[in-house]
């Protein structure tokens, strides 16, 4: 009688654990955001109206964003007079931080600010599917010298891609330091974007 009671308790405990034998394949749909960051690297981003500079402040805030991501993909496009894919969409946040730290205002040699070119490149990089939210985060201090940014943003809207813009700088503008070959500041240039 004691043995039967012991076995019944043992089988009840095993049944409550719910053991399973074998394996089953299930398809998981990855949820999350695709975030493409468009970072202005024109010379005006060296202006020091924001400490230490507009570009460094923008990079700091983007780094804070990356540190809070979980399962979302992030990519980086750098632009000034032309746009270049700096980091394709990835969930490798360590790589994203490494690529972000390498950005400076000399990374794109073409001068100016071409927002529409950067937006078009971002639209080409973001896959068209309905499973994920897609975001373009535009970080800049300037204006669109090409004049087509609104039309390109409307194309993004038609594809259900949200475009957010973040302005970096103050209303009064600030001086842009000029450095010699040794890295010493020799003068200031006036920021003409503001």
Estimated structural class: alpha/beta
Shape descriptor reads elongated
Detail the poorly predicted runs: none
- Tell me the β content: 25-35%
| Distance from first to last alpha carbon | 91 Å
Number of contiguous helices:
5
Q: How much helicity do the residues have?
A: 25-40%
Q: How many individual β-strands? A: 7
Largest sheet: 5 strands, mixed
* Mean pLDDT reading: 85
Identify the strand order in the major beta sheet: 3-2-1-4-5
The sequence of SSEs as H and E is HEHEEHHEHEEE
Radius of gyration using CA atoms only: 25 Å
Polypeptide structure, described:
The longest helix is centred in the N-terminal third of the chain and has 16 residues, at 2-17. Strand 6 (175-179) and strand 7 form a beta hairpin. The protein has a five-stranded mixed beta sheet with strand order 3-2-1-4-5, sandwiched between helices. A two-stranded antiparallel sheet has the order 6-7. Helix 2 (54-67) packs antiparallel against helix 3 (93-101). It is built from five helices and seven strands, in the order H-E-H-E-E-H-H-E-H-E-E-E. With 194 residues, the chain is α/β, with parallel strands linked by helices.
């Amino acid at each position: 009688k004691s043995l039967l009671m012991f076995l019944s308790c043992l089988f009840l405990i095993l049944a409550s654990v719910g053991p399973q034998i074998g394996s089953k394949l299930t398809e998981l749909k990855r949820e999350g955001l695709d975030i493409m960051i468009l970072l202005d690297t024109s010379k005006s981003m060296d202006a020091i109206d924001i400490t230490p500079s507009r570009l460094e402040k923008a990079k700091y805030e983007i780094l804070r964003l990356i540190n809070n991501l979980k399962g979302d993909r992030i990519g980086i496009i750098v632009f000034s007079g032309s746009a270049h894919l700096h980091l394709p969409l990835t969930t490798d946040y360590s790589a994203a931080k490494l690529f972000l730290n390498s950005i400076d205002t000399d990374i794109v040699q073409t001068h100016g600010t071409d927002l529409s070119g950067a937006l078009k490149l971002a639209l080409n990089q973001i896959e068209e599917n309905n499973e994920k939210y897609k975001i373009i985060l535009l970080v800049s201090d300037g204006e669109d010298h090409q004049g087509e940014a609104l039309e390109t943003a409307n194309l993004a809207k038609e594809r259900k891609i949200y475009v957010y813009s973040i302005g970096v700088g103050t209303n009064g503008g600030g001086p842009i330091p000029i450095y010699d070959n040794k890295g010493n500041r020799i003068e200031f240039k006036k920021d003409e974007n503001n």
